Amino acid sequence: MPAPTATAYHCELAWLGGDTALADVLVEVDGDRIVHVEPGVTAPPHAVRLAGLTLPGLANAHSHAFHRALRGRTHDGVGSFWTWRDQMYRLAGTLDPDRYHQLARATFAEMALGGITCVGEFHYLHHQPDGTPYRDANLIGDALVTAATEAGIRITLLDTCYLQGGIGQPPNEVQRRFSDVRVERWTERVQALADAHRESHGVRIGAAVHSVRAVAPDAIDQVARYAIAQSMPLHAHVSEQPAENHACVEAYALTPTELLAERHALDAAFTAVHATHLTEHDVRLLQTHSSTVCMCPTTERDLADGIGPTAAFGESGVPIALGSDSHAVIDLFEEARAVELDERLASRVRGTHTVRSLLVAATDAGHASLGWADAGRIAIGCLADLVSVRLDTVRTAGGGADHALATAVFAAAAADVHHVVAGGRVLVRDGQHVSIDVAGELHRSITRAWEAT
C-alpha cells in the first residue's frame, strides 16, 4: 500500500470518548498519527468527508485465524466444546504454512471490512503435523504476520506456550504440532521471533499460556517472568469450561485464576480470555492485579460455554476487551452488544453495561490488552484509525444523531462499515477492501484447506 500522507477528514458524527457523538468533527492526520481533532467546524474544501458515525479502530483481542474455515461446518447437531474441539483438531492437523497464510490473509481482510484495525492472534500451530519443528522454527508465525500486513491491519502475535495435552498428560497426535515440549524451547523460539520483528511496522510480539491444562505451573511461572522481562502482553485461556476448573482444583487445589496468580502471571499486562466460570475470589484477583478480561460472546454461545460474570467485572472495574475467537462471525458490534444482552438473559436486568463502556471494550480496552496504548481513541497523538459506520442502512436508519452510538452498538453490523483508515492508510472504501477480493479469497483458501483434510 502507498505510504500515508497528510490528510484531513471531516466526520458527520464522531465518537471522541464521551457519552454522545459529536457533529462536524475535523480530524487531521499526518503520516500514521492524528495531529488535530476539532468538533463543530465546517468541512474545509480539501477534506475527505466521512458520512455516518466515525469511531476509532476496533481491536479484535482474541483470534485463531484458522478457525475461520470451520464456519458453517461445525454449528449444527448435538455436542459440546469438547466435540467441537475434535473437529478443530482435524483441520489443524493438515494446514501447511502456505495454506495457513492464504487463509489468515483472507480472514484478516474480513476483519478489516468490519472496522477491525488490530488483531491479537493467539498462535499455537507452531510445528509440522508430526510435531517436528520447521527448519525455520517461526515459519508459521511469520506467515501470520505477513498475512496481517498484507490485509492492512496491525497484529500482536500472541505466541502461545503449549506443552502438554492435559494436566499431567502428553500431547495427543494432533497436539504434538502445538507443543514445544519444554518451556525453554518456547522461550528461544519467541525470542527469535521478537528479534526478527523488533522494527516491523504494525507488528508486536506477545506471549500466551494456552491454558492451565496445556502448561504446568512451573512453566507458567517461566512464561510469565519472560513476558514481564520483555514488557510483552500476556494472555491465557481461563476457565472457559467447568471441566477445566474441576481438573485444576483437583490437581492443584486452586482455580485456574488462582494458579495463574500464584505463578506471577496476573498483572496489568495480563488478559484472561473467556473467564466464563470464575469465582468471586477470581474476580477480585483480576481486579487487584489490574488485569483485563477478553470476552468472546459469539464463540462462547456457539460452543455452549456459558455466560461470563460481566456484571461483576463492571462493578469491580475489571476492563473488558472483545474477540471473535473461533470466527463463528467476525463482527465486533455483535460481540459488544452481546456482552450486555447476554447479561440481561443471565440477570434479567437491563442496562448493566452502558453504550460508552461497550464502545471502550471494542476500541481502547482491546488495543491496550494487545500492547497498543496509543490506539483505540480519536485523539491527538494516537494512531490514525478511523472507522465510519453508515446510519442509513436497513439496520441503522432512523436512529438520528442523538442516538447514533446506541444505534451502532445495538443495531449496526460489520456490513455497515463503509470507510476504514488504519494507521493513516485507507483500507476500506465504499465498503470494499482497497486491494483484496475478500469473499473470493475466503472461498478459495477455505476450499483449499479442507481439500487437505
| Unreliable stretches covering 5 or more consecutive residues | none
CATH fold label of the largest domain:
TIM Barrel
Distance between the termini: 34 Å
Number of strands: 16
| Broad CATH class of the largest domain | Alpha Beta
Q: Enumerate how many helices there are, as a single number.
A: 15
In percent, how helical is the residue content? 25-40%
CATH architecture of the largest domain: Alpha-Beta Barrel
- Oligomeric state of shown chains: single chain
Domain Amidohydrolase-related: 55-426
GO molecular function: hydrolase activity, acting on carbon-nitrogen (but not peptide) bonds
Keywords: Hydrolase
Structural topology:
Layout: E1 7-14, E2 22-30, E3 33-38, E4 48-56, E5 58-63, H1 81-92, H2 97-113, E6 116-123, H3 139-151, E7 154-161, H4 183-196, E8 203-209, H5 217-229, E9 234-238, H6 242-252, H7 256-262, E10 270-274, H8 280-288, E11 292-295, H9 297-302, H10 310-316, E12 320-322, H11 332-347, H12 355-362, H13 364-369, E13 386-389, H14 404-410, E14 417-422, E15 425-429, E16 432-433, H15 438-451
Write up what this structure looks like.
- The protein is an alpha/beta fold and 453 residues long.
- It folds into 2 domains: 7-56 and 376-438, Urease, subunit C, domain 1 (Roll); 60-369, Metal-dependent hydrolases (TIM Barrel).
- It has 15 helices and 16 strands.
- It has helices at residues 81-92, 97-113, 139-151, 183-196, 217-229, 242-252, 256-262, 280-288, 297-302, 310-316, 332-347, 355-362, 364-369, 404-410, 438-451; strands spanning 7-14, 22-30, 33-38, 48-56, 58-63, 116-123, 154-161, 203-209, 234-238, 270-274, 292-295, 320-322, 386-389, 417-422, 425-429, 432-433.
- An 8-stranded mixed β-sheet has the order 3-2-1-4-13-14-15-16.
- Helix 2 (97-113) runs parallel beside helix 3 (139-151), helix 2 (97-113) packs antiparallel against helix 15 (438-451) and helix 11 (332-347) crosses helix 12 (355-362).
- It is globular, with a radius of gyration of 21 Å.
- The mean pLDDT is 96.
